Amino acid sequence: MADVPLLLYGLIAVALAFDFLNGLHDAANSIATIVSTRVLRPQYAVFWAAFFNFVAFLFFGLHVAQTVGSGIISPQIVDDKVIFGALMGAISWNVLTWLLGIPSSSSHALVGGLVGAGVAKTGTSAIVWSGLIKTGSAIVLSPALGFLLALLLVLAVSWIFVRSTPSAVDNLFRSLQFISASLYSLGHGGNDAQKTMGVIAVLLYSHGVYGGEFHVPFWVVLTCQAAMGLGTLFGGWRIVHTMGSKITRLTPMQGFCAETGGAITLFLATALGVPVSTTHTITGAIVGVGAARRVSAVRWNVAKDIVIAWIVTMPMSAFIAAAFYSGASFFG
């Protein structure tokens, strides 16, 4: 690393800034349910989530980092301008949606940014279609699986505790929610931080660092997990409000089922190397527990607005990334 250009350090810093914003933006995913059920106060919940976001690297491999680094666009076409455009496209979209309180996907903003900057450089030949199709499919599959698992969990738990008093169930699941929130934060850190690891790894690869071999150094793993954890500490209260109370009202039992269903989905996706959206996943799970109570318990107009944000995230971040790449090429 001693002989690499100063620009590389700057781009790594921008990538870590994206990772920080990812934690900031997605803090709501980890804590919305446990805050909305009043099991933990927000200031304590963010510390809880940040810790499990950070230690996630101890439990997962680096399959998602490999997918993002080499399975979305071809590593051979990556240069500083492509990475700059991709990161700025993702960061710009993240900041805009965070300010508006829209729970969009940081993951798909980054994927869209990579595609937009790559296409701006070499056209559609830059795209690794198998990886992009796998990631695009997850836009539908991850919230659907989160919805289904959370729905089944809440139905099963309701049947198991049908003879228990509401207060006894509430007290039990207030304790169990600490476990489910931890698992979800673990899944969040395991999947989301790896996306920035992949970006930094392919950036190092493009500069021929470490012999020009694509791999993720351990220092990259640690710094990305730390940036994600720090971002989570600063929270995203606008999105917490949307996720935790606008979609549907949650009890501790429902919060447990939503977090557990979401966590299982994230664990599966991370093991398969699929960069899914933690935002999509927990939203699907929250809708699932609300629909289990009754269909009218879900505020479908809010859910509709969130889905629209999902649809436009990749093309909008791609467009912004392409503009940043073109601007960097013009001035560079």
Automatic annotation (TrEMBL):
Subcellular location: Membrane
Domain of life the protein comes from: Bacteria
Gene Ontology cellular component terms for the protein in this record: membrane
Transmembrane stretches, start-end: 6-24, 44-62, 82-102, 109-132, 138-162, 218-240, 261-287, 307-331
GO molecular function: phosphate transmembrane transporter activity
Pfam families, per the entry: PHO4 (PF01384)
Membrane topology term: Multi-pass membrane protein
GO annotation terms (biological process): phosphate ion transmembrane transport
Main location: membrane
Keywords attached to this entry: Membrane, Transmembrane, Transmembrane helix, Transport
InterPro entries with a match to the protein in the record: Phos_transporter (IPR001204)
Protein name as annotated: Low-affinity inorganic phosphate transporter
Naturally occurring in which organism (per UniProt): Methylocystis echinoides
Lineage: Bacteria, Pseudomonadati, Pseudomonadota, Alphaproteobacteria, Hyphomicrobiales
